[in-house]
Each structure stands twice: as C-alpha cells, then as structure tokens.
Design goal:
Largest interface: A-B, 33 and 30 residues
Oligomer: heterodimer
Number of strands of chain A: 12
CATH class of chain A: Alpha Beta
CATH topology of chain B: Ribosomal Protein S5, domain 2
Order of helices and strands of chain B: EEEEHEHEEHEEH
Largest sheet of chain A: 6 strands, mixed
Radius of gyration of chain A: 20 Å
Structural class of chain B: alpha+beta
Helix content of chain A: 25-40%
Structural class of chain A: alpha+beta
Radius of gyration of chain B: 18 Å
CATH architecture of chain B: 2-Layer Sandwich
Shape of chain B: globular
Distance between the termini of chain A: 41 Å
Number of strands of chain B: 9
CATH architecture of chain A: 2-Layer Sandwich
Strand order of the largest sheet of chain B: 1-2-3-5-4
CATH topology of chain A: Ribosomal Protein S5, domain 2
Number of helices of chain B: 4
Amino acid sequence: MVGLSLGEKHFIQGGIAQDLRCDGRKRLTYRPIYVETGIIPQANGSARVRMGATDVIASVKAELGRPSSLHPDKGKVSIHIDCSPTAEPSFEGRGGEELSSELSVALQLCLLGGKSGAGSGIDLRSLVVVEGKVCWDLYIDGLVVSSDGNLLDCLGAAIKAALSNTGIPRVQVTADPSSDEQPEVDISDEEFLQLDTSGIPVIVTLTKVGRHYIVDATGEEESQMSSAVSISVNRQGHICGITKRGGAGLDPSIILDMISVAKHVSEQLINKLDSEIAAAEAEEES
Amino acid sequence: MEYVSPEGLRLDGRRPMEMRQLRAEIGVVAKADGSASFEMGNTKVIAAVYGPREVQNRSQQMSDKALVRCEYSMANFSTGDRRRKPKGDRRSTEISLVIRQTMEACILTHLLPRSQIDIYVQVLQADGGTRSACINAATLALADAGIPMLDLVTSCSAGYLNSTPLLDLNYVEDSAGGPDVTVGILPKLDKVTLLQMDSKLPIDNLETVMQLAIEGCKAIANHIREVLLENTKELEYRRGV
C-alpha cells in the first residue's frame, strides 16, 4: 500500500490540476514502453512489457482441444492473470487473488468480447482445425512481476505483444473429416502459423484524480483516484469494451468525453506499441 | 536410456562436470528493497526482498532477532505442460521452508531485532535445479538489499547417472530416477548449510558426487561475487565517487 503524507497528496493533486505530473509528464502522456518478446522458450509466444516500474510478462500456450458444442466453429481462448508477491508483499499467499481475478475479468471483457466470442480481438474461427471436433485452445497467462500502477494497460499491451509473437504449429488432419470418430492429427514442429493480431485492441485507462483525468497513472497517483475507466479501442477506432473501477460516481457526459479522449490517445499508443513489438521481434531474430 | 553418450557428452551437449550457462542480474524489481534474477541454462527465477521493516504481525515479533519469511511460487507458464496449480501446495511450501532455513542461517538476524525480512522467489521457467537457482537468486537479492550476511550462500545440484557423476542436472536428467544431491555452502567459511538427496546412491560415490556439487557451488559463488562487484562499480560510477 502506498503511504503518503498530506503534503504529498496535495502535491500530486496540484500537479495533475496544472497538467504537470510528478515525473514531468502531461496528463495524457504515457511512460516509455519497453517490449521484449520470446522470453519464455517453452511457450508458443511470450512477451515482457515494462512501463516505468510496472513490469509484466504474458505467455501464450496453444493446446489441441474440442470446441464447445454451442460454437463448433470457434476455438477457445482463456486469460488468467497472477500477481506475484515480488511485486508487492501484500500479494503473499492468497492476498493477490482478488486483484488477479479483477484483472483477468477486465482483460477478458476488453479483449475477448462477449460470451459467444463475437467481437473478439482474435479471430476465433482461425483457431478451428476440424469443425466441431478439433480446435486450438489458447491459454494466455499473465504475471505481474513489479507493479507501479496501470497494470491493466500494461497487461493488455503484453498480451498483444505475446500474441504477435505466437506461432501455432501447422496441423495435418489424417483421418476422414466426415466420419464420427475423433480425427487423427499430425502436428508439425517446423511450420508455424502466425496469428492475425491487427484486430487486437489496446486498453487505455483514464484515472480520475480531482476534477481531471490522466492516463498511465503511477501507483501513487492511483492511490488518489476517485474512479477509473478502462476503455479498449482497436485500430479502426472502435470501442471493444469498457470497465469502470473505483467507487465514486461519474457524470455520463464525462464518460462520453473520456471515451473520445481514449480514442485519440489509443491511436498514438497502438502506433507506439506496434513499432516497439516490431523492434523486439527484429532484435530476437538477430 | 542413455544419459551420457560414449563420447562423454550429456543430452544437452555438456560434459559431465560442466555447468549450464549462468546469468545474473541485480535490481530487476524496481519497487523492492533488493531484487535479482538468476538463470541457470533454461531455469530462470526472480527473487525480491522487502525489508528489514516493521513486523506485520505483532505476535511474531522477536525482541532478539529478525523474522525471516519466504514464499516460493511458480508461474503457470514455467513448466513444459501448462497446469493450474493452487497456491501453497505441498511442494512449494517445502521449498519455501528450505530456502527460509538456508537464508536464515546466513543472515545476521541478531543485528536486526524486532524487524522482518520477506524473501519472495518467483520461478519463471523451470528446467531442473529450481531449488538451487532460487537460493542463488535470494542471496543476490539479499546482498542488493544491503542485509548483513555471514557469507554468500550458493547452491548447486549434482547427480549420478550411467555410473557418471553429473553436475547441475536439467529437467530430463532430474526426472531420470537417479539421485539428485542439492548442496548449499557458505563458500568462504567452507561449510555446508543445505544438503538434500533423493533416491539411492552407493555410499562410496556419495563423496565424489557431493564434492562435485560443492565445486559447482564455488564456481557459482565466484560468478555471484563478480556480478555484485560489477553492480557496485556501476553504483559507484553513478554516484560520481
């Protein structure tokens, strides 16, 4: 927990009111983002994203499974986040579970669309190998190694980077697809298919402190927030999901205002993130 | 199965007495008082130290020495096949205890009465020897936090397969069913502080295998000392001394 004195609290709030935050940023500026890909060789794809002192790792593992009977033409994706006690001693034992499940649910809402899988950032149809019989299950695991605010945006970015790093083995179906039996599949260990990640949204969290709102709040700034709205926006500028945290009520008109600001900020964030991911991939290959 | 080829090479191409590549970095968790990452080949762990600080639970406070606590956790993606494990299963509780006891033995706890030191180790990748890697990472993190210690504890494992003593087992060799001797030493005092072995081993060979593990510990100690020196030099440079 952040322990701040009255003077420090006033300093943070005053800075935000004057559009000059403690680390010299403006209200709508992100901290520098560092991306590293391919850090977990055992996973199909992985990435580590750092924003200031916030440090998260995301990994993607693909396993063959059966599609659900309700949606035979779609693969399955699940997101699970863990908060390591290295990030904060209060996450020790079961202490991090509440935050972990809050983050997991928020990311599922923002990235995977509704229960039916419609509006998902990942094209679930591309994960199907044999309709109704075999599909790829993607398990996305996030780990918070160090936390200094804005975990949701950072995790969203890490998952996006890990998915662009993911190679799914090419699968050859040997048995007749029309028969009722479970078809036999042959997994290639040389050929990999890249996932289409252009539709995956980024998450922009606007944190309201006093009368203003800021992006990419640090831990100290987050301790002063009244409420926060996380908006996920894709490349086309469409809103893919919204979650609100914090107790204080917000005026509906402010929310609409926040959404338009988030749309504007997300353009820069997507471009920045894409270039960082491309640079990380190039570095990994060299 | 053959774990040592006739040419004397192991499955991953190492010689029997060769260690995996070591990599260590200090200060990987910005908010912790001390932190380090330690890699032995494909095994990668992060350790973070918080403290010495006020004791959280008053009833555990000791008026003559510091309270040392440790938690070991494995990331979901750390093993080859993904499985969700509940926190605090038996294996991690046991490893937490081993690490705590080993570290407590080398921390000068009597210098920090009524305080608490928390050590958190997180396994990012497991490929055999996580126990050793965690102890090595914890040593570095404690040194980074500036906690007074008797010596730098280092740990390394050794095994015995195909009638050959092998240093620093990886996952495949570890699960081969042969003995796995994990040793932790205080290199400067030349004392063994941790010794664990599973499976059986002819008593005549125990000494050679243990000696091999001790040699491994000493090599790790040299590496850790170099990393610490490098880090201190950089801090000195930054301060402009």
